[in-house]
Specification:
Layout (H helix, E strand, L loop, with lengths): L11 E4 L3 H12 L7 E4 L3 H11 L2 E2 L2 H6 L3 E4 L6 H8 L8 E4 L6 H7 L5 E6 L9 E7 L5 H12 L2 E5 L5 H9 L1 H18 L4 H22 L3 H8 L5 H11 L2 H19 L4
Parallel strand pairs: 1-2, 1-4, 2-3, 4-5, 5-6, 7-8
Antiparallel strand pairs: 6-7
The structure holds 1,4-dihydronicotinamide adenine dinucleotide and (2S)-3,4-dihydro-2H-pyrrole-2-carboxylic acid.
GO cellular component, one term: cytoplasm
Function: Catalyzes the reduction of 1-pyrroline-5-carboxylate (PCA) to L-proline.
Main location: cytoplasm
Length: 275
Amino acid sequence: MEETNPPATGLVALLGAGVMGEALMSGLLRSGWRPADLRVSDRSPERLADLQARYGVTGLSPAEAVAEADTVVIAVKPQDMTALLDEVGPHLRPHVLVVSIAAGITTAFLEQRLPEGTAVARVMPNTPALVDEGMSAVSPGAHCRPAQVEIASELMRGCGKVLAVPEKQQDAITAISGSGPAYIFYVVEAMIEAGVLLGLPRATATELTVQTLYGAATMLKETGEHPTVLRERVSSPGGTTVTALRELEDHKVRAAFLRAIEAAAVRSAELSSGQ
Ligand SMILES: NC(=O)C1=CN([C@@H]2O[C@H](COP(=O)(O)OP(=O)(O)OC[C@H]3O[C@@H](n4cnc5c(N)ncnc54)[C@H](O)[C@@H]3O)[C@@H](O)[C@H]2O)C=CC1
Ligand SMILES: O=C(O)[C@@H]1CCC=N1
């Protein structure tokens, strides 16, 4: 039989199979890992049974899941991290790589709660991983070798793009690309509401908005043009676009984005201290 599993990750344990855990797991399965390469754990037995039924993966307790794992991916909420680390720490294999995707949780936080010398990597992914269009940023901890950064990157490449970054950038990255899909969905909601306000059927307003977003994102990605250039091309002198943009400027929408994203980064930095 053809060997499709990238061997570097070895057996992967996923702890916490909620929104992001499932996105990552399904990305791995779509990109060559087999159900037998994965051990999955979730606090909710119903959730675990559902994932076992849909993906054919093996569901276990956290301690059982990590016992034979070469790579452990932790995808629980930051508030659940300490209890989980205490539970699995004694069961980790000596040369394991621990990859955490929890917002705000630093590699130092993880290293302090895991056996001395454990290799950890901090990763910030986002939900478009569900459709293989994720954006992940990977940072190594003190004991994580370059080859292990590559293993963490390989895991994330299963569902999108990956950047290796210094850890000091992670709070800003969490605020931009980690939380970013929510800001875009929020803008989309507002545009659809505006269409409905103008009398369009909701389905029509939705189709117009979603395709416009998709087209604009594709232009940004494929042309490599600066967004200002692309925006100016839409704005005819004395026309509709510039009239709308003046309203956005009057309502300080750009300043609101700056404030909002700054607040998200501050919140990310707070999460390691358990607030
Ligand atoms: N949702 C998002 O857009 C993103 C989330 N993240 C991070 O990913 C992590 C997970 O977030 P979501 O998937 O949104 O949350 P979620 O609440 O959907 O999933 C967390 C899962 O962990 C399970 N869990 C909690 N404690 C556990 C334990 N001790 N053992 C096993 N399973 C346990 C829960 O039952 C739940 O299914 C968070 O740390 C978050 O900061 C990172 C990037 C994006
Ligand atoms: O809202 C949160 O805390 C997580 C991290 C990035 C996206 N969702």
